[in-house]
Known about the structure:
There is one protein chain. The protein is 77% helix and 0% strand. By secondary structure, it is mainly alpha-helical. It is elongated and about 95 Å long.
Amino acid sequence: MLRKQLAAAEEADDKAATIELGRRLVAIAPNDSETWGQIAQLQLNEKNYDDCERTLNAWAKAVKQPPPAFHNVRGQVAFERKDYGAAERDFLAAVAKQSSGQLAADAFSNLAEVCIVQSRWIEVEKYRAKAIAAKDSASGHVEHATSLLRLHRWDAAYAEMAKANKIDSVDATVKEWLPQFERLQTFLPRIKSLETRIAKSPNDADLLLQRARLLTVAERPLLALEDCERAMKLQPAWMRARIQTGEARLDTEDADGAAKLQVSHDLTRVQDRHVADEPLHELADEDARCLREPDSAEPLAARSKTLRKLLQFTLALADAQAALVLDDESAAAHFEAAHSLDELGHGKEALAEIVRATELNPQDPVAWFYRGLLEGQRADLAGAIESQTKSLAIRESVVALREREQCARRMGKAKEADVDLARIRQLEPPPQ
């Protein structure tokens, strides 16, 4: 009767009833490992790890030699609790008792997961291969293919993907991964060419960052991250390495990891959701100049500007301030410091920096324009108008005219504002 009720509860997907009836059954037949396993698996699926552990302990007392399923479930409980050593021991115990079939394939896959969290990529690939040997499946070949990608064994990975597609082209895992493999394939010739050069110069940070860039655009951020972090260890002062590493962290949804590098989630991306090539090339040139000219403020100020364009104001400010330590009369460094301080919410300090920039380079119309903006933000409308007037005297621009017009209106100087508005309309007529 109990078995019929258990079967009915299972068919109705009534988990609570299935567990309760299962407990009654094993109280009568304590050697019934199938029912023990059913109870434990349900509790595991429901993430009731404490109850699952109690069931496992009772199972171990009732059955002197628990079957492979016991070790597989206990290993999964340990894994969820991040006790990876215990998890690995149990999964190995499971495959020692049964090395083929679905249960063995699951245990080998679980062993691969343990190795993944510990970055043991060679062992991940071996366990994925053993999972296929235990029980062939399309999804198993896909998982093996992805583990081969982590080892940069490109041809072997694509051979596994082809096998998966041949076995079951409509398998959900195959459908998910096949387009990703196809995208990566377009970048492989360049990646392989770089790898030939990296093999000859494994400590060349520039080559590693070039490969990381291709992997990033190919939507393989985990692979890109490995190269980026190696490059950062080789060249910790390179902002290009820091930005690429931060981008890879953001692409792997590790905003905290990016923040530790002082790379914010506001990182400027283009339409393909990646940092554009141009600022990365600029950073590469500026990094090289910073190394070649350690006593020069100019490359630091230039790099600060590039970082500002990427909306990385904390890093930009650090470079601007480092430039000012070397040369306090660098107008460019004061200008960049002003921008970053303003963006970081330090308006008073920003105004002091831009004032200094205009004093050092009074022929810069952009500096006067920006000074006028900051003065306007602090309600110094007369100062703002004066600064925009100086900017316009050097080079006429619609943005400076517009700012001067708005400040004039705020001061009640409608006549002067209307003159500026008329000139704006001449320079920028409204669309027809």
